[in-house]
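Notebook, p. 212. Picked up where the previous page left off. The plan for this session was modest: take the two constructs that came back from the sequencing core last week, fold each one, and keep the raw output in the notebook itself so nobody has to go hunting through shared drives later. Recording the first one now, exactly as returned: residue sequence, then the C-alpha cell string.
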Amino acid sequence: MIRGIGLGLSLTLIAAGAILAWAITATSNDIDLVITGYITLCVGLFGLFIWIVNTMVNRWALSTGRFHPAPPAPAPLPPPR
C-alpha cells in the first residue's frame, strides 16, 4: 500500500503556504517568500487531492466488496521427527 501525506499535513502545508503567500510582508534577498508560499500551498492542495481520491477509492472498494485482503498465512509445518 502506498502512503502519501495525510489530511493533517496537507492542511498544515496549505495554511503555511497561505501565510507565506499573503500575510508575510518581510523581504529577503536570498529567497522569495511569496513564491515559496505559493509552492507550499500547491503541494498542500495536491496532497489534499490525493488524500480525497484515495479515501474515495478505498470506501468504494469496501462498499462494493472489491477489496480483497491478503489471505491468511498457511499453517506452519510440524517439526521433523
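Okay, moving on. Second construct, recorded in the same format:
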Amino acid sequence: MESPIIKNVGCPHACKYCCLFFMKRITTSPEPWGEFMDVKIWNKIKNPEKYAEKKLFISSVTDPHNLQEEIYGRTRQDPN
C-alpha cells in the first residue's frame, strides 16, 4: 500500500470485535463508536499525476460496504 484513502471515520455497525474504536479520538462526533459515520468530502486533487502507477487502499479504517457508501458514493467518485 502506497497511499491510503480514508473516506469515512466511524462505522455504524458496532461490531463486538472491532479493533478500530481508537479512531474515535480523531473525530468530534458525540456519539459512541459504532453509532456514527463522518463522511469525508475532499477537494479536487491538484496533482493527480503523482498518484499514477500507485496502489491505493480505500477504507482502511471503516467498512467500505455500508449504507453511507450507497448514499454518498465516495468510492465511486473520481477524486480528481
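Notes on construct two before I forget. The first helix runs from residue 67 to 72.
Flagging for discussion at group meeting.
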